[in-house]
Amino acid sequence: MKKSFSILIVACILFNLVTFVSAQENENNEINNEENGIYYEQPRESIEKFFNDARKETEEKVRLLNSITTFDNYSYEYKTEYSSRERVYANNVLLNGQPRGGTRIDGYININTDKGTPIKLSVSVGLPKVPTVMINVEMGSYTGTNVSGYSIRVPNSYQYFLAYADKTFEVEGHVVYYRLRNSNDEWKVYTTFFPHTLFNEHFYVMPV
């Protein structure tokens, strides 16, 4: 019964563990609409705050896990290992939602820079038991006549164009290990978290 109770508590704690993903990275920050498209770089202070908050959250969850004692053979201790910060690149990604043959217009192609075109990226974080991880990101999308997002100036009105995105993300690995309390057992991987946030992004058009 004690074992079941401890497992239930741990499950409740893990239910609240979240994947840290930077949301609304463009909010309150200017995006430059240049001749070669739209470019944005997230301020360094915002990136550092994101990762500091992510570590604090992980540390608090591990502290709660370590506070669980059942006074039997099923009491565990936990520790966390962090990877160095890594960058991962997604380049030349065609945005979802566009006409297959492209758009010909005298004006702008409208895009959403945050939502749409989900992809997976492989990241080498260099931890002994978790050397490589996969993260899910969104590259943005074509919005047609909806101008609620951003617009890319089309170079001319006689060619068809498609919109693409390049994005760079920063990633940090958090690996939580466990073993029987007060033992010399090998530490085993309990769970993993991979907080990631945008570093920069570039949206542009190319002729079909």
Helices, strands, pairings?
Elements: H1 2-15, E1 32-34, E2 37-41, H2 44-66, E3 76-82, E4 86-94, E5 108-112, E6 118-124, E7 132-138, E8 141-144, E9 150-153, E10 161-171, E11 174-180, E12 188-193, E13 196-207
Antiparallel strand pairs: 1-2, 2-13, 3-11, 4-10, 5-8, 5-9, 6-7, 10-13, 11-12
Question: Can you walk through the features of this model?
Answer:
The chain is of the alpha+beta class. The chain has one domain (38-207). 18% of the residues lie in helices and 42% in strands. The protein contains two helices and 13 strands; from the N terminus they run H-E-E-H-E-E-E-E-E-E-E-E-E-E-E. The protein has helices at 2-15, 44-66; strands at residues 32-34, 37-41, 76-82, 86-94, 108-112, 118-124, 132-138, 141-144, 150-153, 161-171, 174-180, 188-193, 196-207. A five-stranded antiparallel beta sheet has the order 1-2-13-10-4. Strand 6 and strand 7 form a beta hairpin. The chain is elongated, with a radius of gyration of 22 Å. The termini are far apart.
